[in-house]
């Protein structure tokens, strides 16, 4: 099952105040933790989805940059864009770029659940779905298409219309700690 890795790294970072994917944790930019977690699972192609304003700041020779022409349309648009450009992979493992505690074993664990009967594999922590650290099958594309045409931007607009598998994770699992604000950064570090 050919599976691509996508690091979503084209957001506004408006709550953070500057592009948060380049903030350093243990001397390394946040986005590199997502790239590494996917790379260690040999996901191919390994893609960073971003825009032309941010593109020159990435330094990840193992990944290809996918540049959005229309910026800031959100993760649903970004995943749809990558799936439309890359026709070969069957599955797409998506990670946001603001989760410096994500690990390769977490990615590996989710990969084990790929199955022809499901269109997406979504972790759940407590009651909270985590669609920004998740796997999507290419067959989601037409459903995403419809949602975007209806001007819906949230990944929930996809999940409301497909059969997906929920994978429960412990409440304290650090992989899901995403950094939205400088306060989050201080609290988690
Ligand atoms: N490629 C791409 N990635 C995006 C887009 N919007 C958000 N992301 C990424 O998706 C992840 C989650 O984004 P959020 O933190 O919810 O939104 P954000 O725009 O980055 O930040 P806020 O402006 O503070 O909401 C981050 O890694 C973002 O970089 C987009 O339009 N394109």
Automatic annotation (TrEMBL):
It comes from Domibacillus enclensis. It holds the Pfam family NTP_transf_3. Belongs to the MobA family. Transfers a GMP moiety from GTP to Mo-molybdopterin (Mo-MPT) cofactor (Moco or molybdenum cofactor) to form Mo-molybdopterin guanine dinucleotide (Mo-MGD) cofactor. GO terms for molecular function: GTP binding; metal ion binding; molybdenum cofactor guanylyltransferase activity. GO terms for biological process: Mo-molybdopterin cofactor biosynthetic process. Its cofactor is Mg(2+). InterPro entries: MobA-like_NTP_Trfase, Molybde_CF_guanTrfase, Nucleotide-diphossugar_trans. This is Probable molybdenum cofactor guanylyltransferase. The gene is mobA. Residues 5-157 form the MobA-like NTP transferase domain. It catalyses: Mo-molybdopterin + GTP + H(+) = Mo-molybdopterin guanine dinucleotide + diphosphate. It is found in: Cytoplasm. Its main location: cytoplasm. Its EC number is 2.7.7.77.
């Amino acid at each position: 099952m050919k599976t691509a890795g996508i690091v979503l790294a084209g957001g506004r970072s408006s709550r953070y105040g500057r592009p948060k994917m380049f903030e350093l944790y243990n001397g390394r930019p946040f986005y590199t933790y997502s790239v590494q977690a996917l790379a260690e699972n040999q996901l191919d192609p390994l893609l960073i989805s971003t825009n032309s304003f941010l593109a020159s700041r990435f330094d990840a020779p193992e990944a290809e940059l996918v540049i959005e022409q229309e910026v800031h349309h959100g993760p649903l648009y970004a995943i749809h864009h990558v799936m439309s450009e890359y026709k070969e992979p069957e599955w797409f493992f998506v990670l946001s770029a603001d989760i410096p505690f994500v690990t390769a074993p977490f990615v590996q664990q989710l990969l084990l659940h790929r199955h022809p009967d499901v269109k997406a594999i979504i972790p759940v922590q407590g009651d909270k779905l985590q669609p920004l650290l998740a796997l999507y099958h290419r067959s989601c594309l037409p459903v995403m298409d419809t949602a975007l045409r209806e001007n819906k931007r949230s990944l929930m607009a996809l999940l409301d219309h497909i059969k997906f598998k929920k994978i429960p994770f412990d409440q304290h699992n650090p992989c899901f700690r995403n950094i939205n604000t400088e306060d989050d950064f201080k609290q988690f570090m």
